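Dear Dr. H.,

I hope your travels went smoothly. While you were away I took the liberty of generating a structure for the chain from your last submission, since the lab meeting agenda had it listed for discussion. I wanted you to have the full record in hand beforehand rather than looking at slides cold. The sequence, exactly as received, is reproduced here:
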Amino acid sequence: MKPLIHELTITGHKRKPMLKLYHAEPVANSMKVLIPLHEKDLAFESVYIDLHKFEQHESWFVAINPEGQVPVLDHGGFIVTHSTVINEYLEDAFPDHPLRPVDIRERARMRYWNKFIDEHVMNHVSMHGWHRMVRKIAQAIDKDELEKLLARIPLKEQRDKWRTVAGSSFTEEQLAEATRKVSVAIDMFEKQLEKTSYLACDSFTLADINAYSHCGMMAERMFPDLASREKTPNFLAWVKRVNEHPGVQKALAGPDHTNPALRTFTGEAG
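The corresponding predicted structure, in token form, is as follows:
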């Protein structure tokens, strides 16, 4: 049965087109799409999908996104999936309040950082999130019930991750390598931010939204040995600048449906 809409968010002017966003808590991939929607002052209907209850694998949702993952943008019946693609689509569909640089060299740099974050940062931060939070969910579910839930997951990779954290979780070697990858990324951000106020240039772009959502907003809390005022002053100054953007503040102010016992680290699961 399709769940009720948990919240209804209408922003912007009445004449602006209505969008619908299916998302989880305002962190990681969902946060990444909520920020540009708010920055652009777009009207949208917010449909919360409870990942902890496996709502993303219900038949009604898989009919919308066969991969069974959030976020999903519905623009008048046209479905867009994957947060980086959604954000590029929003730029094309709603060019007001642009979040892509005008200069083609700066735009290329923005796309470089988006590719780097998607391929070399996101999964390594996510591994720590699964280990610290999703593991608690998986290990609290009866084994037979868990197998029934896993059978509904469309993607084998996601089934494998659930089975991993339901068991002994990731190894110390895997977690150490993930931390090393995150460390490399933060060091790269730090060097770039010596030259520019934001990652691609001196203006706020989709690259900053991507990096902030996957790494910046939680770096000090998750990786205190990697991000500190002594080691990464430019990176932390950038986090502060990003935090001050209205779209970020509005996204962070959204309702938090997470079980309080799981809020030591709020990540996402697919």
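Two observations you may find useful: The first strand starts at residue 19 and ends at 23. The two ends are 19 Å apart (CA to CA).

With kind regards,
E. W.
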